[in-house]
Write a structure and sequence with these properties.
- Strands 1, 2, 3, 4, 5, 6 and 7 form a 7-stranded mixed sheet that branches.
- The chain has helices spanning about 5-10, 15-35, 50-55, 95-110, 170-180, 185-205, 210-220, 230-245, 275-290; strands spanning about 45-50, 65-80, 115, 125, 135-145, 150-160, 165.
- Strand 6 (about 150-160) and strand 7 (about 165) form a beta hairpin.
- The chain is globular, with a radius of gyration of 21 Å.
- It has about 300 residues and is of the alpha+beta class.
């Protein structure tokens, strides 16, 4: 059984030493981009995203994700069939391939021998004694237009095979912060508990490894009132029961009944995800048994 005392310890963020390494890594990546001549005068937004930015990471998942968003080009989509924001086609130099190559050059100049560019999307800066691993994601500004002048902003990320996806990191940060506030700052603590529990299960060979972001999303979909219970064991019992029961059946047909990512834009379960309902159900079952909750 995982004790109340142990769960309380699991609620904490990265240690001050680990946090210092994370901050140093982000700062050095910013310095690399700022020092690169090809980016002089170019409109770029550099920002942290993922668990590090959202303060839900734990020691075993302490790498940082940094977006380098080129705003010289704006990709868009009309969600309102009556709208037309066609604009002028871009003919400049900042293609996805060129942006990636220049970011790679900037990183190699700053971190010689430590850059891995073999990934399909991100450029990896490997850790050393002074910094943590980092994934640097080249991307572009992305805007969706809706009726009544409403817009939604994200980032378009291209892979090496020329396919792309949209990320909504700023919405993830916003909605996660809002839920944390509604739950008396217990939401993010509960996310850290689940991430540490997942690490324990994987190390013990009791569960398959799950993405850190998925853990955050699963807890996000649990009702706010669960986080206001009097003990961490009762919080986890409610959350794991919800996760287990929701993934026991097929994906609901009604969109309003489907679970969402923390950004509240994308469905949590769909054919393009790296995880399935069956994966999550097996994980929830293993976690429930490890916690020794009653059936």
């Amino acid at each position: 059984m995982v004790s109340e005392e142990q769960l309380g310890r699991w609620t904490g963020p990265s240690s001050p030493t680990e946090k210092e390494k994370q901050d140093r890594t982000e700062r050095m990546i910013r310095e690399a981009i700022d020092a690169h001549d090809a980016f002089s005068g170019v409109s770029l937004a550099i920002y942290a995203k993922g668990s590090y930015a959202n303060n839900t990471n734990v020691k075993a998942d302490s790498d940082v994700d940094i977006a380098v968003e080129c705003q010289e080009v704006v990709y868009y989509r009309d969600r309102d069939p009556n709208a037309d924001h066609s604009g002028v086609p871009y003919t400049g130099i900042w293609t996805p391939q060129y942006l990636r190559s220049e970011i790679e050059s900037a990183l190699r100049a700053k971190f010689p021998g430590s850059v891995d560019a073999t990934g399909s999307t991100a450029l990896r800066v490997n850790s050393n004694t002074a910094r943590v691993d980092a994934d640097v994601v080249p991307c572009f500004r992305y805007v969706e237009y809706f009726a009544n002048g409403r817009t939604r902003e994200g980032a378009r990320v291209f892979k090496n095979d020329h396919t792309f996806t949209e990320n909504y990191s700023k919405l993830q940060l916003l909605h996660g912060t809002q839920k944390n506030t509604r739950t008396n700052h217990y939401y993010k603590k509960t996310v850290r508990i689940l991430k540490r529990l997942e690490n324990v299960l994987v190390t013990a060979g009791l569960a398959e490894e799950m993405p850190s972001y998925l853990m955050e999303c699963l807890i996000y979909n649990c009702p706010d009132e669960y986080f206001l219970r009097s003990t961490w064991r009762s919080v986890m019992q409610g959350c794991l029961a919800d996760i287990y029961n929701y993934t026991m059946t097929a994906e609901p047909s009604e969109e309003s009944d489907r679970w969402m990512e923390v950004n509240d834009v994308k469905f949590l379960f769909h054919s393009s995800q790296k995880w399935t309902r069956e994966d999550v159900h097996a994980f929830a079952s293993a976690a429930w048994e490890y916690m020794e909750f009653d059936a």
